[in-house]
Design a protein that fits this description.
11 helices; Rossmann fold; two-stranded antiparallel ribbon; 36% helix; 266 residues; binds S-adenosylmethionine; alpha/beta; Helicase, Ruva Protein, domain 3; seven-stranded mixed beta sheet; single chain; elongated; 2 domains
Amino acid sequence: MRETNPFTEPPKKRLGQHFLHDRAVIAKIVQAVDPQPGEHLVEIGPGQGAITFPLLERHGELTVIEFDRDLIAPLTATAAAHGRLQVIHRDVLQVDFTALAAGAAIRLVGNLPYNLSSPILFHALEHAEMVRDMHFMLQKEVVDRMAAGPGSKVYGRLGVMLQAYCEVTPLFDVPPDAFRPPPKVDSAVVRLVPKAAADIGVRAPAMFTSVVRDAFGQRRKTLRNALSKVCDADAIAAAGIDPTLRAEQVPVDGFIALSNALTGQG
Ligand code: SAM
């Protein structure tokens, strides 16, 4: 007997719903995650289960966080045949990953709603101590920015903030026709691995955030001008950075050294 598809609602644009249907891409994502026994996997935005069910087949259990109420019942009903699925019906930005982890670090996976990708990344960073790694599908342009280094046109605030706290590794690109409906842009899968506390050089997170924001807020200006509200040229030079450089020329470690020095922790 032919099974009827329980997912009857059309994709919702406002929730960034572009459902993956390319089996080769799905298999590559599962392979990249490579779940191991005992690990707690959490998928953000399972949608109609394109990644969920293959992961569940492979791992036996999975937690998913989905905001769209119309998807909750069909996800739950379909999951029964594949494994044990815990469905959290909430906005992912309201989910406390540290509480969800309950003492054993979680692994995050998701083909993210692209309109929310930066807020979700920063939300995950807030709980980085309890996140072992993340595998996310994002706009390729965002992945390029996340992984860019000094000198690149797309090196900026997002890359510096993420690279200070995580290893960022772009894995592979995904074309629009892998999704239904196809998005207007190319996509890419990226792996983020939060650094161990001992490897994070940032001593003053609030100062680091504001230095990076101000430096790239006016990226055409030299550091001495862009940061004039925070410090003078001598303070920048004292941290070992040439104050006549522009932000896009300064490596991540430079911003860390400067923010540490400005708070007397250099
Ligand atoms: N994982 C599915 C796939 O690959 O086909 C769906 C991916 S779709 C790009 C993004 C998913 O995130 C949708 O299912 C959407 O309903 C869900 N979503 C959107 N905003 C959300 C939020 N704030 N919290 C949780 N899920 C959300």
